[in-house]
Write a structure and sequence with these properties.
The protein is mostly helical. The chain has one domain: Tetracycline Repressor, domain 2 (Orthogonal Bundle), CATH 1.10.357. Helix content is 70%, strand content 0%. Helix 1 packs antiparallel against helix 9, helix 4 packs across helix 5 and helix 6 packs parallel to helix 9. It has twelve helices and no strands.
Length: 220
């Protein structure tokens, strides 16, 4: 892919970029010593392997300790309990995705036109959700936090920024919710697991939705 261009040239966009960076801060890792951060990453890598091999149900404190060749107490001290471990694992994945949005190669990262980035964003979220569906459902925020949790706010701010670039006259504050609803993990679960829709159909639907919303036509 081509090298990224300077991402957000306009003053308002610079403010949004700063907001995105602030939303992407990982408070759980920023204060850790280097050796503690390495140990944490090692445990999360072990947990990720277990998810890939056995699903979220296969992630227990004991299994992670065995996979990482550490004592079970080490895992409990680091994450508290299984829920804390799953949340940390999802957060680890979220930070990688945020880094790709902010500084990765286009079209997911900066350097491509906003509509092209919207297309890439939705397809990437759908694929990530399909890969991590059990984890994302387990970490689904409560109703009162559904729209205010930092990861959701980060992604919503990102989509709003692209919409402002592509549709300066649109009510992006409302339109962003329409687009993000399509990417909801609960809906993805319903469509892929209960309705047996292939992920390629959902990706095609996203591209069609973006084309209709932005009035740009389908990608070439």
């Amino acid at each position: 892919m081509p090298a990224a261009l300077p991402p957000f040239p306009k003053p308002q966009q610079d403010v949004d970029q700063a907001e995105l960076l602030q939303l992407g801060v990982d408070d759980g890792e920023s204060g850790l010593r280097a050796d503690a951060a390495r140990n944490r990453a090692r445990l999360l890598e072990a947990a990720a392997r277990l998810v890939a091999e056995h699903g979220a149900a296969g992630v227990t404190m004991e299994a992670v300790a065995a996979a990482a060749s550490v004592g079970k107490g080490t895992v409990f001290r680091r994450f508290g309990d299984r829920t804390g471990l799953l949340m940390a694992l999802l957060d680890h994945s979220e930070k990688k995705f945020q880094a790709a949005l902010l500084g990765g190669p286009p079209p997911l990262g900066p350097g491509a036109p906003p509509v092209e980035r919207l297309r890439a964003f939705g397809c990437a979220v759908l694929r990530r959700t399909a890969d991590e569906l059990e984890l994302q459902l387990a970490a689904e925020p409560s109703a009162e936090r559904r729209f205010t949790s930092p990861p959701r706010r980060f992604l919503r701010h990102h989509v709003a920024l692209l919409l402002r670039q592509a549709l300066p006259d649109a009510d992006t504050e409302l339109l962003v919710h329409t687009l993000m609803a399509y990417l909801d993990p609960v809906l993805v679960h319903h469509l892929t697991r209960q309705c047996r829709m292939p992920l390629t159909r959902l990706e095609a639907g996203w591209l069609d939705l973006v084309a209709r919303v932005t009035r740009t036509g389908p990608p070439s």
